[in-house]
Design goal:
With 113 residues, the chain is mainly α. The chain contains 4 helices and no strands. Helix 1 packs antiparallel against helix 2 (41-72). It is elongated.
Length: 113
């Protein structure tokens, strides 16, 4: 799939920007981890749930970045989605372009800390 050069460059730039955002989320996660360590036992459970949601957000951003990078390299949408590390994300995005569940990757689900 040949893209105009400016489209490919833009997709790669957005992928890079998403990875930079992922890096900032990593810093926030570290701070949240420290705060959870100081939380009372009654507040620790809900705080851990929120921290896990932040972790999932970071993983989704990383997966989106990978998809955009692959599209920017000229891969077809089904190939770019197959490389997504989160199968639920791949299925949701694939549905937009008419791909069925059998195009989704089977492995590398969300990793919770």
């Amino acid at each position: 799939m040949a893209l105009p050069a400016d489209h490919a460059a833009l997709l790669r730039a957005v992928a890079d920007a998403l990875l930079q955002a992922r890096g900032r989320i990593d810093g926030i996660e570290a701070m949240v981890g420290e705060l959870i360590g100081q939380a009372t036992s009654e507040n620790r459970g809900p705080a851990l749930v929120q921290a896990q949601a932040l972790d999932v957000l970071g993983q989704e951003i990383e997966a989106l970045s990978g998809i955009l990078r692959r599209l920017g390299q000229g891969e077809a949408p089904d190939q770019a989605l197959d490389a997504a590390s989160l199968s639920d994300l791949s299925v949701r995005l694939g549905a937009v372009v008419g791909l069925t569940r059998d195009h989704a990757p089977d492995t590398n689900e969300v990793e919770l800390f």
